[in-house]
Design a protein that fits this description.
It is built from 16 helices and 22 strands. With about 525 residues, the chain is α+β, with helices and mostly antiparallel strands. The strands form six sheets. Strands 1, 2, 9, 10, 11, 12 and 22 form a seven-stranded mixed beta sheet that branches. It has a seven-stranded mixed beta sheet with strand order 7-6-17-18-19-16-20. It has a two-stranded antiparallel sheet with strand order 3-4. The protein is globular, with a radius of gyration of 22 Å. It is about 35% helix and about 20% strand.
């Protein structure tokens, strides 16, 4: 074992997902000596990109919020600007197009009025309720957009922001314990329309409306019309690369192929980390951008007999894992991972005027089932440079739990990959006729792939409620029950999505900045 006596860092961040990079770059900009440790070769985690044979593929979804120009909810724009960086983006004229059971097809236009008119034409008897429901989402969004989104764990910040925007604070507090389904049913009765709102939630939260917090829906259902969906030129991975550049320009550092295996704990306090090589690094504060299952040891959920991952050995041993983490595991379970296909296809396959993002479901009963919903992104419609001339990228993925991929021999695993991929392509022929014959390049990722390359338990993309909870109130913030250790990312308030984990990063950096005496007195403009 090597105990390196080199620099003692102010902050070490474990993992270079977007949440971790926002935390690190914000802290570096405040003057903290900050080091990011990344187990893989490139930054970004599920918000990264990889290159194959002239294609630039996004690891995760390419439907990106947070690049607006006004207000306070444009968190990716603000995070980059704070460290002197900027991403050129391409606006998407629509969030996505739904292809749903019974021939229901709905496009979510960038223009709010056009979307409401389109939906009202499909459900004319619910026109008033449609307007009332989505206008309520705007009320939530306007509260969020009126204040800089920093740490709710800092009393000084809360006092300042209440003084600046008291009505917005009170309005936000009203919606914290509320879920979307309750609000939707106040205004809407049509069962098919309520199922559509379930899908509106599921497409980004992997949960139906009854389990989706109203705060999250207020952000997503409104920001798609306010700031809009904007794709970063060069691929989603550019966001992480720019954040790394900003981190380094402010004196921070990142190390790749540096897998952390242990958080060092002395006298009940986190004081650094140990790498797989045995090297130890010391810091005044440690931040885990791993999931909470990968951070703390313990059962995957409150019911270990049914959990897809019965137990985890985290960076913090069970003896030091705070009791609050057991409560969290009873409330939340891992969301499924994905079966994903990154396809290079003949450009002639894609019809003129085709939207970039699509969602396909053939049977409402299958919405939460294994490989039920199919998501499609065609980012080359926005940035043709991502593929060779005469080609498009079709990135399609469907939820898949790791339990269906365990215990397979190498040959059985390969056979399942091929069979499931072929079935996915066949289903997509419903919206892209001729897809199977137009494929010129194919990469298949399974939950095991996501687990291996992203270092996430079961390849999960974050927690979802294991039972019905009161909105966002039970979600943990950045501080943990172990002094000196913080968490950031989709296991923390406010949850999944690039803009959400950017919020988490801002909040974590602000809380640590308060603890280290680095924060400016004034709130951001």
């Amino acid at each position: 074992m090597t105990n390196t006596p080199a620099t003692t860092w102010d902050v070490i961040v474990i993992g270079s997902g977007i949440g971790g990079l926002v935390t690190a770059s914000q802290l570096a900009a405040k003057g903290a000596r900050t080091l990011v440790l990344e187990r893989y070769l490139i930054p970004g985690g599920s918000g990264g990109s990889f290159r194959r044979e002239g294609y630039t593929f996004d690891v995760g979804a390419s439907m990106i919020f947070g690049f607006g120009e006004r207000g306070h909810t444009n968190l990716l724009t603000r995070a980059l600007a704070d460290v002197g960086q900027h991403c050129d983006t391409v606006p998407d004229p629509a969030q996505l197009e739904y292809h749903l059971p019974g021939g229901l097809t709905v496009t979510v236009d960038r223009d709010y009025t056009a979307f409401i008119d389109r939906l009202s034409a499909l459900f004319p008897h619910e026109a008033q309720g449609i307007r009332a429901f989505y206008d309520t989402c705007w009320q939530v969004f306007n509260c969020l957009d009126a204040m800089p989104l920093l740490s709710l764990e800092d009393p000084a910040y809360l006092a300042k922001v209440f003084f600046r925007a008291p009505l917005a604070c009170l309005g936000l507090a009203r919606w914290l314990p509320v879920n979307v389904g309750d609000v939707a049913r106040q205004h809407i009765r049509d069962p098919q329309l309520l199922k559509l709102i379930d899908m509106e939630c599921f497409c980004w939260s992997v949960m139906p409306a009854d389990l989706t917090p109203m705060i999250n829906a207020g952000m997503v259902f409104s920001d798609r019309h306010a700031g809009g969906i904007n794709y970063p030129k060069g691929g989603v991975g550019v966001i992480a690369e720019k954040l790394v550049a900003g981190l380094e320009s402010h004196g921070g550092a990142i190390r790749y192929k540096a897998r952390v295996t242990k958080v060092l704990i002395e006298a009940g306090q986190a004081v650094g980390v140990e790498l797989a090589s045995g090297e130890q690094l010391r810091a005044r504060r440690v931040v885990s951008n791993a999931t909470r299952w990968d951070t703390f040891s313990g059962p995957a959920s409150g019911d270990a007999t049914t959990a897809s991952e019965p137990a985890t050995t985290g960076l913090v041993p069970a003896a030091q894992t705070p009791k609050a983490e057991t409560t969290w595991r009873r409330r939340y379970k891992p969301s499924p991972s994905f079966l994903s296909l990154h396809l290079g296809v003949e450009a002639s396959l894609i019809p003129e005027g085709f939207h970039c993002h699509h969602l396909l479901l053939e049977d409402w009963a299958e919405m939460e089932a294994e490989q039920g919903v199919i998501f499609v992104s065609i980012p080359t419609l926005l940035d043709p440079s991502l593929a060779p001339a005469g080609r498009h990228i079709v990135h399609t993925f469907t939820p898949s739990d790791i339990q269906h991929w365990r215990g397979l021999s190498p040959s059985a695993y390969r056979a399942k990959k091929q069979a499931d991929a072929e079935r996915l392509v066949q289903r997509l022929e419903a919206i892209l006729p001729g897809l199977g014959g137009a494929i010129r390049h194919r990469e298949i990722g399974t939950p095991r792939t996501h687990r291996r390359f992203l270092g996430r338990m079961g390849g999960s993309y974050g927690p979802i409620p294991a039972l019905r909870l009161p909105g966002l109130l039970p979600m943990p913030f950045n501080r943990t029950g172990l002094k000196g250790l913080y968490c950031v990312g989709d296991s923390c308030f406010p949850g999944q999505g690039l803009n959400a984990v950017a919020f988490s990063g801002f909040a974590c950096a602000h809380r640590i900045g308060a603890d280290l005496g680095l924060n400016p007195w004034a709130l951001p403009a």
